[in-house]
């Protein structure tokens, strides 16, 4: 049962988070997706960050979540719109993973 619970949790966090982040970004119509960059790179970065955050929370390695966030802070953008889009997506992705991590940890005890 626990294995199935973890599988469900990871699917919700990683793939479900994609829909949650897109929903958040659509709520702010003034902030458009920046042009340029690798196709689908943001989506894959989001998948990986939610995977890492969920794993760290479930393992009790809460300090590691800060390292993931700090690693993303290295990115530099040319204009305000790119920065806003990036920050909205990052915060939505982190919030999704953290909430699911804590709910999952309580559920799978």
Description of the molecule:
Helix 2 (about 40-60) packs antiparallel against helix 3 (about 65-70). This protein has helices at about 1-25, 40-60, 65-70, 80-105. The chain is an all-alpha fold and about 110 residues long. It contains four helices and no strands.
List the helices and strands and how they pair.
Elements: H1 2-26, H2 41-59, H3 63-72, H4 80-107
The major sheet is characterized as: none
Distance between the termini: 12 Å
Give the ordered list of helices and strands.
HHHH
What is the strand tally? 0
Structural class: mainly alpha
Question: Into how many domains do the coordinates divide?
Answer: 1
With helices defined by DSSP (H or I, 4 residues minimum), what is the helix count? 4
Helix content: over 70%
> What general outline do the C-alpha atoms trace?
elongated
Query: What Rg, in angstroms, do the CA atoms define?
Result: 15 Å
């Amino acid at each position: 049962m626990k294995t199935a619970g973890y599988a469900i949790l990871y699917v919700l966090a990683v793939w479900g988070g994609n829909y949650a982040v897109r929903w958040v970004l659509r709520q702010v119509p003034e902030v458009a997706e920046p042009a340029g960059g690798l196709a689908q790179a943001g989506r894959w970065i989001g998948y990986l960050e939610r995977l890492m955050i969920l794993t760290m929370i479930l393992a009790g390695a809460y300090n590691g979540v800060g390292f993931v966030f700090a690693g993303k802070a290295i990115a530099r953008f040319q204009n305000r719109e790119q920065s806003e889009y990036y920050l909205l997506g990052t915060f939505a992705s982190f919030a999704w993973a953290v909430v699911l991590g804590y709910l999952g940890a309580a559920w799978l005890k």
